[in-house]
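Sample intake sheet
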Amino acid sequence: MRLPILTLLFALLLVVSAHAQQQEQEPTPFTTWIDLHQVAAGQAPTSLPIWLASVTTSQQTNANGNVTTTFQINMRLMPGLDQKRLLRLFFEDRAGASPTVVGLDANGVQTFSRGPLGQSLELPTSDTVVFSTAGIAAIDIIVPGDGRNLRGVFLATLQNHTMMSALDFAPSGDLIDVFERGAALQVPTNDMALYGRIKATLDNGTVKFTDAQPTITWEFELQALPLMCLVNMEILAADPQAPLELTLNDHPLGAVTVSWPDLADPGYVGMVRPLESGMHFRYAGWLRAQKVIPGSALQTGVNRLVLQLPSGASPTAVHNLELLLKHNWKNLDYSVNPATP
């Protein structure tokens, strides 16, 4: 009596195996990752794209004994490729060790400079520089000190696409991120109203959360209660396993939601802690995050919004905190459920 059942199970296994997918390596001939720690240790990259010639490093010491480290990325002229490049530099944002990206022509003359990068937040971060290759022979990444705070460089060849945006609205950005990371928030100076929504900037500065300062409070005043509220922000060095928690008017509302990019993004930095199994990750860069708040959690007059770093979590930072308040308007679509008692 068991034979038919075993036969059926075997047939099901065959069906599942028939639909299994093979793993393929995504081709990236015009993109590369350069580990600057390996370059500093004398290990030159061996698989550079055709438009890169070499990567070298050097150090200089001035009369005061101050050391400056330079990583030089030497370019090849490739007329057949689009003449725009993306350089995303990953580094520890340490005070006194802010990197600068400089473009040089064939004679070593500076053609552009970006930086110093970072805000001295002592957190893992990244910054993106887009440049034209016209007249560029080399890119120098210059940093005070021994350069150990520089982690790596992601380089990609860019191409132009025709994009469309609504006439009344500003485009979200002029660069489509490789790993589907959202564009930076553009918070307004004044409150903006549209279709019953009011957009208000709560704080366009940067605040840091640490063990010594795990909570930060903002106050805002409302003249009328909205139907719903959306809190938007950007978070640096976010931990997927320890998100910031939001409290409004002394009522805990849970963790904020981060919009995570593709896991192939080099921004994910692993971290192993003693006596803990598995690996924690932090994201070296700014990511959008948000929290939906029901209108019933708000009150007329002064409201207190608190963000808190979970106990034992690594430091993080927040900037561009804004509120979106949804109010009733003439074309609000809603239903009463149940329609009858």
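Comment: Helices lie at 3-18, 36-40. The CA atoms of residues 37 and 273 lie 22 Å apart.
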